[in-house]
């Protein structure tokens, strides 16, 4: 009981403040540590000769002339490294009988995609290495090229891998009826009053992180340090050990400043393996840095699915069932989580809607292209696109407003927690609130009125409004769930807190940032947890010697899982410090209050000690309680029990010039619920960046292979990463319904904008021209495609794709699915 | 090999270079000016933008020998006496960067843009930085940063920024 009222001013909270980022100081002044900046004494440079053909046997390979070039130290072929290169690991065998053909880092006798490594030159300088590549004599004998997924899965199709019996890697099924989370899907379709079927194409994309990949390996005795522009130094270390046989404890992996990743650096790259093998052979430091062309051609791609979507409903617009069949392009090999990307999406196709029945099937298909793998959203953007597009198609079929249909079927705010037909337990949110706010932010009524005016006036520039009311599963991931899905690792994260003698604080995180601002956000969390100044906290990461345990950064997991580990570690620090404080204050632990960074004795003004001073006291260790160790440092590992489920409503208003096919985003508004916001500045930035990538999928980006399997979008001239002129102003906002699965209440923000925006943009374009008979336009919505869809029918994609196999062709024999070569027929 | 002399961020360097050496490779590999980075090989991304005799150039599009006798300013040379350039400061304050890889070029291009047009509209800013690609930010905060810098430079003249490197808001 307090006798005297003490001042009760709550210290200012860091969480929720728009702190400017700590990271910026080095990034805006050029004092950076990109991997390619690294120079070591005696360092050699590796250059890679790459296959110019998509499928061939290597009939002749002579490197002797290259070997004789000035400055060349060594030249290696696949045959030289065959016995030690192992196979690039695939951590996600999604079915027990999944076919993994093996993935050599360097081709030994056969190449399976353009860009595959066929020889390595190691030289004193980068230019000497690259020059010598031209002296390598190599001949290929062509094999049939497999590019079109729908042809590749036919009986008797040419094979990508001669030693497999088909081009299908796996057949993955999730059936809600069988899983006990829904009713019989086929029966639901048989009983349905209305069904709508569509074939959607998720074009192949390239992550196109701005910093090209780069690796430096330094051998020291039988130890190796690798610097790599990677998102996943911890995962990379484990995998390097398993692939090369270098014992894990002899490997140190460092991710210094890393210039973006977006999933594209969530990989164990062939060149990382090869750099290590070469450094081991030569006993010298080796560097490899890719050119942009190499990056676009050989770093993994994303998306690339053909989606067959069926939805069933009654005439009043109550959804009854959802059926999904995918063809997912694996490319030539399975990389780290190649097969798992579409499987992860399996759980998100039902979106925010209360489907009673659901069935998902996916074939992973090999083609002679670079492998696909994670790209911002990884499976969830594909799923969100399909469900948000088909909901619009169903609304058209029913003659309903697309928003009315959504409202009728989404999970209401009072129904959380809600177990979906896919078996996920959504914990919190309010889809109606987000939608109402987004409509307000957009100025919906006014734009609808303008749309009406333009339609009635026959304006050549039509206006459309498109919705995406989405959710995603983030915070990857509960380890037991990953285990049940046969994923090769857990989903926990670790943090430790070191209280330095002067009271300064080091936070070590296993989560590895590459632009997300962990150093700032983690400092805010610790400042609140320990009551220390923001500037007294330093965040360490990205080095397996400093941060020994971690599972790195992807899947919007850093704050949700890694941030929680920081909170848990801080709680342990306070608990340890409490014992020391009680001893020093000669009080009972129970009488201590921890507030604003100090322990004080309740009811005894003046009797207090700051936690930063306790750090010094246990360093000196002259006076501390019996029976405890003189340290208040602590570490924690957090394994979430559930995913988190950010949601939001994104609305795009789009102008479509019906005479030129040119589309212009008139306005873009979104309200996202990502739970508790630690730093609104960083959150807004993440949303903006995600929007840019999602919008860019809808409007600009596409990795195109020609009929011979050459990537024709192999430079930034051809692969259209948008500039400032290509993107609109974004109006963004948030609702806050904290996640219940972690003490921060955070849901994750890294992927939201990217997942949500793509269908909103396409739905908007269609809304503008649907009255002209257009029911689909294939992404990206180039002026040519839009013009053709308006004036010639179909989805506009075929002519643009002529002479290429960008989409795996455009043919289907599925009943009820329109041929892409004919006009779209509407719903059944 | 050809001998060239280039003054970079106030220091004069005389070196032998291969005639084919690009300015950006000379800066990074011979002079250790690794603040300037290489993001592509087709002069699309602008990450390597520096000022050559006061004009912004993509240093992957200039041969080192072309810079002989010239003055080059890189991202490492725009803060004077530890005081951030207003554009650097604005990028920090408006969160105009995330991974930061495009940032050196983006800042150099923005400085040049503001020199030519001290009070650009949003559209003029977007046009002005069209040659610089950013994959993280969606550009909105970069536009805000350039607007803020324009305001500050317009009201105070250049280089009166009070904040030093690393200062937090």
Molecular structure report:
The complex is a heterodimer of chains A (828) and B (169). Chain A is of the alpha+beta class and 828 residues long. Chain A has 3 domains: 24-30 and 492-638, Aldehyde Oxidoreductase, domain 4, CATH 3.30.365.10; 35-143 and 208-298, Aldehyde oxidase/xanthine dehydrogenase, a/b hammerhead (Aldehyde Oxidoreductase, domain 3); 174-206 and 300-475 and 642-801, Aldehyde Oxidoreductase, domain 4. Chain A is 28% helix and 22% strand. In chain A, the strands form 7 sheets. Chain A has a 7-stranded mixed beta sheet with strand order 3-5-1-12-9-10-11, with helices on both faces. The longest helix of chain A is centred in the last third of the chain and has 28 residues, at 558-585. Chain B is of the alpha+beta class and 169 residues long. Chain B has 2 domains: 2-77, Ubiquitin-like (UB roll); 86-156, DNA polymerase, domain 1 (Orthogonal Bundle). Helices cover 32% and strands 15% of the residues of chain B. Chain B is built from 5 helices and 5 strands; from the N terminus they run E-E-H-E-E-E-H-H-H-H. Chain B has a 5-stranded mixed beta sheet with strand order 2-1-5-3-4, with helices on both faces. The longest helix of chain B is centred in the C-terminal third of the chain and has 17 residues, at 140-156. The radius of gyration of chain B is 16 Å and the shape is globular. Mean pLDDT of chain B is 93; it is low at 157-169. At the A-B interface, helix 1 and helix 20 of A face helix 2, helix 3, helix 4 and helix 5 of B. Chain B: It comes from Goekera deserti. Chain B: GO terms for molecular function: 2 iron, 2 sulfur cluster binding; metal ion binding; oxidoreductase activity. Chain B: Pathway: Alkaloid degradation; nicotine degradation. Chain B: Pfam families: Fer2, Fer2_2. Chain B: Residues 2-78 form the 2Fe-2S ferredoxin-type domain.
């Amino acid at each position: 009981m307090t006798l005297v009222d003490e001042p009760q001013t709550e210290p200012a909270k860091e969480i929720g403040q728009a702190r400017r980022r700590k990271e910026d100081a080095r990034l805006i002044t050029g004092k950076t540590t990109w991997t390619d900046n690294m120079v070591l004494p005696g360092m050699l440079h590796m250059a890679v000769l790459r296959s110019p053909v998509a499928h061939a046997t290597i009939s002749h390979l002579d490197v002797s002339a290259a070997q004789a070039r000035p400055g060349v130290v060594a030249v290696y072929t696949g045959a030289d490294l065959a016995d030690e290169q192992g196979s690039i690991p695939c951590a996600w065998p999604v079915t027990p009988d999944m076919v993994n053909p093996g993935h050599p880092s360097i081709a030994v006798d056969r190449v399976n995609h353009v860009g595959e490594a066929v020889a390595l030159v190691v030289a004193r300088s980068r230019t000497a290495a690259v020059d010598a590549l031209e002296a390598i004599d190599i001949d290929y004998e062509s094999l049939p090229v497999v590019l079109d997924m729908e042809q590749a899965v036919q009986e008797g199709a040419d094979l990508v891998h001669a030693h497999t019996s088909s081009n299908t890697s796996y057949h993955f099924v999730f059936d809600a009826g069988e899983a006990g989370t829904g009713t019989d899907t086929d029966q639901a379709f048989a009983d349905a009053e209305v069904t709508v079927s569509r074939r959607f194409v998720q074009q192949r994309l390239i992550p196109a992180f701005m910093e090209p990949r780069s690796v430096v390996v330094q051998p020291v005795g039988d130890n190796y340090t690798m610097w790599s522009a990677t998102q996943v130094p911890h995962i990379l270390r484990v995998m390097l050990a398993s692939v090369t046989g270098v014992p894990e404890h002899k490997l140190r992996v460092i991710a210094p400043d890393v210039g973006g990743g977006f999933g594209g650096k969530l990989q164990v790259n062939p060149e990382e393996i090869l750099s290590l093998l070469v450094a081991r052979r030569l006993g010298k430091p080796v560097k490899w840095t890719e050119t942009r062309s190499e990056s676009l051609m050989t770093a993994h791609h994303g998306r690339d699915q053909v989606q067959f979507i069926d939805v069933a409903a009654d005439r009043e617009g109550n959804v009854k069932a959802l059926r999904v069949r995918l063809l997912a392009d694996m490319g030539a090999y399975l990389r780290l989580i190649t097969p798992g990307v579409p499987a992860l999406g399996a759980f998100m196709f039902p979106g925010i809607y209360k489907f009673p029945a659901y069935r998902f099937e996916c074939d992973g298909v090999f083609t002679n292209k670079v492998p696909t793998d994670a790209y911002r959203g990884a499976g969830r953007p594909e799923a969100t696109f399909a469900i948000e597009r088909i909901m619009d198609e169903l609304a058209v079929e029913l003659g309903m407003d697309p928003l009315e249909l959504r409202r009728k079927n989404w999970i209401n705010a009072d129904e959380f927690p809600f177990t979906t037909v896919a078996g996920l337990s959504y914990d919190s949110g309010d889809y109606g609130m987000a939608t109402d706010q987004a409509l307000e932010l957009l100025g919906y009524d006014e734009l609808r009125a303008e749309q009406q005016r333009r339609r009635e006036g026959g304006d050549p520039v039509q206006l459309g409004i498109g919705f995406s009311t989405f959710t995603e599963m983030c915070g990857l991931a509960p380890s037991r769930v990953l285990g049940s899905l046969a994923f090769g690792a857990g989903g926990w994260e670790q943090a430790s807190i070191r209280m330095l003698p002067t009271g300064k604080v080091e936070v070590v995180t296993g989560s590895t940032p590459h632009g997300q601002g962990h150093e700032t956000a983690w400092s805010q969390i610790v400042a609140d947890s320990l009551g220390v100044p923001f500037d007294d906290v330093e965040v360490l990461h990205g080095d397996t010697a400093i941060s020994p345990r971690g599972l790195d950064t992807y899947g919007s997991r850093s704050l949700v899982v890694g941030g929680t580990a920081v909170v848990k570690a801080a709680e342990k620090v306070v608990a340890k410090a409490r014992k020391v404080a009680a001893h020093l204050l000669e009080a009972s632990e129970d009488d201590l209050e921890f507030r604003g960074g100090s322990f004080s004795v309740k009811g005894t003004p003046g009797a207090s000690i700051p936690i930063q001073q306790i750090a010094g006291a246990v360093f000196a260790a002259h006076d501390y309680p019996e029976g405890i160790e003189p340290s208040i440092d602590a570490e924690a590992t957090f394994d979430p029990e559930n995913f988190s489920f950010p949601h939001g409503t994104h609305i795009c208003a789009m102008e479509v010039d019906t005479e030129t096919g040119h589309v212009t985003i008139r306005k873009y508004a979104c309200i996202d619920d990502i739970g508790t916001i630690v730093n609104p500045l960083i959150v807004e930035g993440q949303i903006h960046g995600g929007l840019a990538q999602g919008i860019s999928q809808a409007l600009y980006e596409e990795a195109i292979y020609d009929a011979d399997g050459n990537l024709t979008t192999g430079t930034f001239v051809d692969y259209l990463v948008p500039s400032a002129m290509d993107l609109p102003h974004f109006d963004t906002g948030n609702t806050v319904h904290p996640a219940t699965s972690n003490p921060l209440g955070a849901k994750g923000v890294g992927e939201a904008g990217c997942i949500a925006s793509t269908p909103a943009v396409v739905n908007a374009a269609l809304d503008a021209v649907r009255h002209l008979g257009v029911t689909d336009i294939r992404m990206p919505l180039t002026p040519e495609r839009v013009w053709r869809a308006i004036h010639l029918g179909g989805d506009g994609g075929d002519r643009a794709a002529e002479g290429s196999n960008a989409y795996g062709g455009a043919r289907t024999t599925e009943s009820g699915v329109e041929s892409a070569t004919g006009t779209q027929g509407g719903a059944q | 090999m050809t001998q060239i002399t280039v003054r970079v961020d106030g220091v004069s360097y005389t070196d032998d270079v291969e005639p084919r050496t690009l300015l950006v490779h000379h800066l990074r590999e011979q002079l250790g000016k690794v603040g300037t980075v290489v993001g592509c090989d087709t002069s699309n991304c602008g990450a390597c933008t520096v000022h050559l005799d006061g004009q912004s150039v993509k240093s992957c599009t200039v041969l080192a020998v072309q810079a002989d006798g010239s003055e080059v300013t890189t991202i490492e040379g725009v803060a004077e006496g530890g005081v951030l350039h207003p554009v650097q400061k604005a990028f920090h304050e408006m969160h105009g960067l995330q991974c930061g890889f495009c940032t050196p070029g983006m800042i150099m291009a923005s400085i040049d843009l503001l020199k030519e047009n001290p009070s650009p509209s949003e559209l003029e800013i977007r046009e002005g930085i069209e040659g610089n690609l950013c994959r993280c930010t969606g550009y909105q905060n970069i536009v805000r940063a350039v607007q803020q810098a324009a305001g500050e430079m317009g009201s105070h003249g250049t280089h009166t920024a009070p904040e030093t490197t690393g200062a937090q808001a």
